[in-house]
Specification:
This protein is an alpha+beta fold. It has one domain. It has 1 helix and 8 strands, in the order αββββββββ. The strands form 4 sheets. Strands 1-4 form a two-stranded antiparallel ribbon. The chain has a two-stranded antiparallel sheet with strand order 2-3. Strand 6 and strand 7 form a beta hairpin. The protein is globular.
């Protein structure tokens, strides 16, 4: 039993470390969003996911928005956005809430 708990703590620590190490800090702030003309949704209930700029290691590249079907009823989309922190800008991935 003690061994299982110890292994659990080791894996939890490794997971926490890898999650914190995954943040990419960008010194240059993102450009303004690109205006996108969106067509009608493909079906009823679809939600528009706005486009956003993604850093490729050298420059920002625009990823176009798209219509997506929510994974469950009453889910809403939280758009990709950048947060400024002490070390630089960090992308917060879009996700369903």
């Amino acid at each position: 039993m003690l061994m299982k708990r110890l292994l659990g703590l080791v894996f939890a620590g490794a997971l926490a470390f890898s999650a914190s190490a995954a943040a990419v800090y960008i010194r240059v702030g993102p450009p303004h969003a690109v205006y996108e003309r969106r067509g009608p949704p493909p079906n009823r209930g679809y939600v528009w996911q706005s486009g956003y700029h993604r850093w490729d290691g050298h420059a920002y590249n625009w990823n176009q928005g798209r219509w997506e079907q929510p994974p469950r009823e009453h889910a809403h989309w939280v758009s990709h956005h950048y947060v400024h922190q002490r070390q630089g800008w960090v992308l917060v991935e879009g996700h369903w809430h």
